[in-house]
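Work Package 4 report. The design task specified in the project plan requires that, given a folded chain encoded as structure tokens, an amino acid be chosen for each position. We show below one input record used in the internal validation round.
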């Protein structure tokens, strides 16, 4: 306490000046309309700036939650689209309550690890068995194909990226349904290769390539990329086609895992046909 009094006595001129300034300010505000309006306007400007800055900061930290909500909503809407429904013949299945069965279910997931610079690249997602994710499920974004689920734990899943030497995706040309196979040759992460398109097929730069749906993993019609180059290697009856991927694999935050609800039935029947 003694130290405080010593400090105040030592600087009493400053504190006296400060008190007189405050008193003068009060008199000015109370007796001058112009000065009062100017001060209030300035105070409002300062407070507005402070609130705006605070709101911007709050909004920035809220982006993560907003993005998660948008991803969940996108997956939900995908599941409601007519293209994920399998039509059935009501004349033969008159006991069914509906003329359609749901074929695909979409599960939103966040990418928590990713690579693009290796020969074999993977993604790690924050969804696993507990959230309905299983092996051999397609992974996409609204822009197109990302990869295929390879391994699953209780709450996480590992995805074989399209940027992997083992990736083989059944694809086709959108304009004429000509079938091919998508692979990645390990050079540029933005460019894929489409094989098995016969050389008698007319191609154009910019032609769109989509999934065929024949693998029972990817739904039909998911975008893959557009043709940027094509050529015929010596003595080959098929084109080598270079594609610009629609999805930038190096810039992923949220994806959708596609669950084909009838894949087991489809695979079982396909195996039986091969045995026969």
């Amino acid at each position: 306490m003694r130290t405080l009094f010593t400090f105040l006595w030592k600087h009493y001129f400053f504190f006296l000046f400060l008190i007189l300034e405050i008193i003068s300010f009060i008199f000015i505000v109370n007796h001058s309309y112009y000065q009062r309006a100017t001060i209030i306007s300035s105070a409002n400007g300062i407070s507005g700036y402070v609130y705006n800055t605070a709101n911007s900061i709050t909004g920035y930290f809220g982006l993560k939650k907003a993005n998660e909500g948008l991803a969940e909503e996108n997956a939900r809407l995908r599941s409601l689209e007519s293209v994920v429904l399998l039509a059935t013949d009501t004349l033969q299945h008159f006991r069914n309550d509906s003329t359609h069965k749901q074929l695909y279910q979409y599960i939103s997931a966040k990418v928590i690890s990713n690579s693009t610079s290796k020969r074999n690249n993977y993604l790690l997602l924050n969804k696993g068995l507990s959230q309905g994710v299983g092996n051999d499920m397609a992974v996409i974004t609204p822009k197109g194909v990302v990869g295929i689920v390879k391994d699953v734990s209780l709450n996480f899943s590992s995805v074989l990226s399209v940027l992997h030497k083992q990736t083989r995706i059944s694809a086709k040309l959108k304009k004429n349904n000509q079938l091919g196979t998508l692979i990645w040759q390990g050079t540029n992460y933005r460019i894929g290769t489409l094989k098995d398109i016969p050389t008698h097929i007319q191609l154009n730069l910019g032609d769109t390539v989509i999934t065929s749906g024949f693998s029972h993993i990817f739904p039909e019609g998911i975008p893959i990329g557009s043709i940027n180059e094509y050529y015929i290697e010596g003595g080959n009856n098929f084109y080598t086609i270079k594609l610009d991927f629609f999805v930038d694999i190096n810039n992923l935050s949220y994806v959708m895992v596609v669950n084909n609800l009838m894949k087991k039935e489809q695979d079982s029947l396909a195996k039986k046909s091969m045995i026969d």
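Residues 2-60 form one domain. Validation will be extended to a larger panel in the next phase.
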